[in-house]
Fold each of these.
Amino acid sequence: MRTPLFIVSTKAYLWGNRSLELARIADKIAREYDVCFIYVPQLVDLRLIAGEVEIPVYSPNLDPIKPGRGHGHDLAEALKEAGASGVMINHSERPKTLSEIEECLKRAREVGLNTIVCCDSPRAAEAMTSLEPDAILPEPPKLIGTMKPVSLEMRDFIVESIKAVKRRNEKILVIVGAGISCARDVAEALRLGADGTGASRAVCESPNPEKLLREIAEAMRKAWDSRRS
Amino acid sequence: MRTPLFIVSTKAYLWGNRSLELARIADKIAREYDVCFIYVPQLVDLRLIAGEVEIPVYSPNLDPIKPGRGHGHDLAEALKEAGASGVMINHSERPKTLSEIEECLKRAREVGLNTIVCCDSPRAAEAMTSLEPDAILPEPPKLIGTMKPVSLEMRDFIVESIKAVKRRNEKILVIVGAGISCARDVAEALRLGADGTGASRAVCESPNPEKLLREIAEAMRKAWDSRRS
Amino acid sequence: MRTPLFIVSTKAYLWGNRSLELARIADKIAREYDVCFIYVPQLVDLRLIAGEVEIPVYSPNLDPIKPGRGHGHDLAEALKEAGASGVMINHSERPKTLSEIEECLKRAREVGLNTIVCCDSPRAAEAMTSLEPDAILPEPPKLIGTMKPVSLEMRDFIVESIKAVKRRNEKILVIVGAGISCARDVAEALRLGADGTGASRAVCESPNPEKLLREIAEAMRKAWDSRRS
Amino acid sequence: MRTPLFIVSTKAYLWGNRSLELARIADKIAREYDVCFIYVPQLVDLRLIAGEVEIPVYSPNLDPIKPGRGHGHDLAEALKEAGASGVMINHSERPKTLSEIEECLKRAREVGLNTIVCCDSPRAAEAMTSLEPDAILPEPPKLIGTMKPVSLEMRDFIVESIKAVKRRNEKILVIVGAGISCARDVAEALRLGADGTGASRAVCESPNPEKLLREIAEAMRKAWDSRRS
């Protein structure tokens, strides 16, 4: 995964054709600005969208099963064949047991899916380094779905999360989220050292998502440039 | 839903192109014999398959959420737009709370998805009539995934389930499953009065699924003809 | 279970000695007014309280296990030996799958524990009659823990729940709850035909629980007398 | 917690008076040999047993709630007042989400309960060091409840778990389990460097638990003596 990155996750705010439309906008802007956007749609939309855009499309779930039994469980091999580049698991709205997280990461690696593990705190972020996901996404649950950005409201949460992860394993990306709604929030998250951030409600409900994503892409470019200099 | 019907559920035995191939075979045979097959794929394959076949394609899951929050939860509206005709919930491998079952049925109705509720016993089948799904699918958990067909091993289970449902609501279909692996098992389930049956492992792992489904379709035609006479 | 009955459930509002004290007050008043109070403490307090009072003490949980494995699961036999008269399961704060509910009721019956199954709606209440618990306790989740009594705010909910259960099985008690905080709320629930009601927060946080329970007992006596006449 | 220690967990193999009897035997032998036994009973038996023995009694569960709502959830304050010295959470038979584990540890610390977190692998054991429990108990799930001791069948599992935990935090105890059934299994686990081990089925189903625990205590003394020399 190239950094900085920005995750557009639809959750259940958008689906079907409107989700495809948003993914296409994100795809266009990602190319235009040469930044990395990741798109996380409703699972049932994954194949459609992965077939139409170049940006990586991630599954919002994976279950710790192997080929065989498992009615209603999402199989790693099926996600991969459908075009998923990765998976995002353990979101606070879809938490998993410690044992399931471990098994999901193993299954994702076996089929070549990138992994983002969400968690609730800097401590939990540190814990997750032992399971070696590609990225860790700590979010303070109380800010999720609000318009209070973690990068302004809880700077310490971000700084501590980054420190906690990087001192264990520099290669694991730290993505932060919760309440992110505009370019300023993104810029601030990156300035604090995050490898990426993301938004869900703000992008899905934006009256002008193209303008919003464009501003975010610009903030990402600036952060990128200032890091290299 | 037209009866008798037969559910082909892939669970995690098959996915992607191989699942599409099986769905096409089922589609062809359903047309040829004018019988009702329902196909339940991995969720991520739903849209692809629904776009390629005429037989109804059902989702293996639905979550009790409304548009909005709900990372990793499957939204009724998204399943519908992707081409699902219905949903199959509360399978013993993906059980739901009583409250979730009720809310899922409400959400499915709101968007026009047919509903099949699985359960473990004749009593639970009777209970589910109060929630008015389109179909109830009682399965003895211990026979699921085996080659011991419920229609031979536990005839009473089938007879009692049908009685329990129909005395409450004649319109609700009773589908029975577990261990069904050949035309004889299907014929016997229908002879006992079931509105349908289904299989997962036996069809997915069959060296010749076309032959198997053809034999099953023939058994369904015979059952149909003998009921009308 | 003798009716009308009133359930005092501590949830996590009270525990240990303060819970024992409340149970003793309930016990005294139940005897004084000859009414049926049921006490549901924190599980770890069950044995202590059951040993000190005469009113029935119910467990707030039961797990669907048999003697043997099951770390952290509450065994029916253990609850019974500790002095439980019954169990209250599937509360909206501790929901169970349909399959677990069925198995819990079976296990409770096997060891001689009375059963109260909570649920969310009149429909779900009707569904539960098929599993034949001793009592069904429908509660509108949105009123739980508030001071808005279901017996004033949602009279239809009560009336429909009673009708739904009694037309299926007259012997199953219908207890209603959510937001009940004083004698007037109790009187109204009983007047609408409920076999009982209950409270948690209001009793546990009352500055004078003895006075509150006394007023409730009086309301129960009046309801009792007016039914007999 | 003094080491080496040995956990006697009844799960649902024993309860009530028979559990109290076993706890008394463990208590007597612990005193006789000056070794540390920890007793984990059915939750409903906790207060009874904690009141009768001197060895620490741990709760088999804790829920991540605060005083207030939470029907059917086990409150830290209630466990503490009932006499619990600690809690054992996330057993593979009662797994918790990562978020719940973190919150449970916080709640346990707030009321002064010792903490043992179970997990499935050396990696997960390492992860749990970040949450700073008092002890970590990795168990290979496939050996739990068998008579195949982890200390003979999967020596690497033990060695790697100890290394994984201790290089992060020397103070956190590493207890290992699964399939432990006699003094030899215990001796071998301690020889490999574990701070403790435990058994459930083997002790509960032993025809002579006193003899078995005596032999285990002797093995613990020997391990203790050989470490000091």
Note: Chain D has a mean pLDDT of 95.
Amino acid sequence: MRVVAFSDAVFAITITLLVLEIRRPADDTNLLHGLLALWPSYLAYAVTFLFIGQVWANHHVMFDHIRAADRVVLLLNILLLMVVAFLPFATSVLAGALHTGDWQRTAVVFYCIAFDVTALTFNAVWQYACRQRLLSDALDSAGATAIGRRFQLALAWLAIAALLGAALPVLGLAGIVAFNAFYWLPIRGESPARRLKGDAG
Amino acid sequence: MRVVAFSDAVFAITITLLVLEIRRPADDTNLLHGLLALWPSYLAYAVTFLFIGQVWANHHVMFDHIRAADRVVLLLNILLLMVVAFLPFATSVLAGALHTGDWQRTAVVFYCIAFDVTALTFNAVWQYACRQRLLSDALDSAGATAIGRRFQLALAWLAIAALLGAALPVLGLAGIVAFNAFYWLPIRGESPARRLKGDAG
Amino acid sequence: MRVVAFSDAVFAITITLLVLEIRRPADDTNLLHGLLALWPSYLAYAVTFLFIGQVWANHHVMFDHIRAADRVVLLLNILLLMVVAFLPFATSVLAGALHTGDWQRTAVVFYCIAFDVTALTFNAVWQYACRQRLLSDALDSAGATAIGRRFQLALAWLAIAALLGAALPVLGLAGIVAFNAFYWLPIRGESPARRLKGDAG
Amino acid sequence: MRVVAFSDAVFAITITLLVLEIRRPADDTNLLHGLLALWPSYLAYAVTFLFIGQVWANHHVMFDHIRAADRVVLLLNILLLMVVAFLPFATSVLAGALHTGDWQRTAVVFYCIAFDVTALTFNAVWQYACRQRLLSDALDSAGATAIGRRFQLALAWLAIAALLGAALPVLGLAGIVAFNAFYWLPIRGESPARRLKGDAG
């Protein structure tokens, strides 16, 4: 499926480009101190990596249920990819501010907003597909609503993280970390193993 | 299909590399001001991203109708990819000129020409495939002409944008933005949803 | 298969980004001397390239035997990819230290630890899949144990390389080079050719 | 087919990373002059792009005829990819020397050798596959010899280009340009169009 394969490639490239934002310490510094001083870069790298991993997984969940795509779906999906491919820049801004200690509030809010706009584009694709009846017949109305709720929760959660970050930067970051934990960790009784072989997607 | 998969990968990588041209503000500037001052980079990023998204979609339209490729098709397609993969450089030139305010005319014309050469390589692939009768039998002569007209329109549109940009830079940019809008927005009655599942491409 | 295709893309991108760490000599130096002086970069490039090539091959061996993935497998696999995508940074640190001659001990240990954490994530995926009975029925208990032993050997080998590197940097590097040789070179009677055509993976 | 898909990804990424070596002119120079002064970068970009395009096409020709891969084939193929992924660095060295006018002999020879080592790894894969009888039954002995000759010709051609470049840099470059022309341009009666649809590769 073209749209999903193309999107997957963009996710994979974005996630791998994140490391380019981490620069090795200058030659004249103590290397061990220099490597330890890069903790903001490592933290930002890990948080964004896990977030894009979620984006990838949820993008599949979403397109598993969309049976047909018109031009608006393609456009909304390109906007989604445009926001995701922008995340390495937001990550670099966050790491820089945590490193110097200056402008952390601005950097954290910017970072949270970038994540929240990603959630916004997810909601746009899903709401449009629901209204235009582009969903698979195998998904009933309750199922569509459940997925939509999940995406709305992400939108609200990340908006709150941005607001918390505006009050106290560390709270915004904690909100993002909690977001990653909540969406990645398995919930008891919810996570059936999916067969890998013969998976057409 | 090898040629299309390889081309898709180049499109996906190019589109994702665009963000590398955006550098975070220097540590000693006000971060909010610095982020706002990067608006030329954001604008150039978005315009090129949407344009390459169109290139990707139209490349599929084109190769959906080409049933066989000889060595000339492969060569013309490689030239097409060479121009597309060059676009991040043109984008960087544009963003730099908009940022400093110097040499905007040169930068806009250079940017428009890069886009127009992309359209030129599209036309070259299509015209060659038409003349060598490499098109699918499912496409009748009227259909082939319609697609050719669409590609010729792009060629003319982007050439005019370059000329307008030479007169007044902002007009050239407006021409490109209008181009993106025209090719992305759905036209009433024209945009049937395509099934995603079982799509072999 | 989505998980494997996505992982393959991350491996391919990571392996190709390694070259970006090699910068051409400054314009005012003798170019031949400059190119020769970059031997630490070439060495680090080749060693990491071959290592990631092994990671790619072994990732396929592993997922050939995992019949189903739950959310924990996806999470552990994302952690594996996060460590692999980090390797260009560790490679850059190693090349820098070998180039200047300073802090080589720190750089070699850092590099070996990065490799060893990769092995750790492999073991985590495999042990989890074994315990949750997510393995293919075609793999008997002895086969699963043999693969697990192979991964444990890598974990121990790379840990020892880190310890050796802490004692004498060149020993740590020799440990990594020997690791690449051991896992890449064919063992007599062990290496049947696998058919390429019709290979579903 | 895993090996080919992975190799394709490395080719596509390498070809697209080439543009990162082209840096926009400094803000304080006349932009038009600055863009024109980058002609060595454009030339090196185009030559390497077309060369890697050939590598991609020939890699498919080669693996179309290899029916099975053992561990040595995988290792030789990884070495081939390692050399290809290194080409952006050689391209950067060439562009830098052409730009400053210094050390052109060294740069051209280095560039030609990098191309020739690529041809060497091609020959290594093919010779090994021939000797180990890993070729498809559909290819008779004469066909295998013809492909081997073609690869040997590339090896000799690029070695001669390196020697010519050592005598006079422009001759070495001319040798590479002629190489691209010879392998890309269709030969009369030789180039049947290949069907794209239903192509399993």
Note: Chains D and A do not touch (no CB pair under 8 Å).
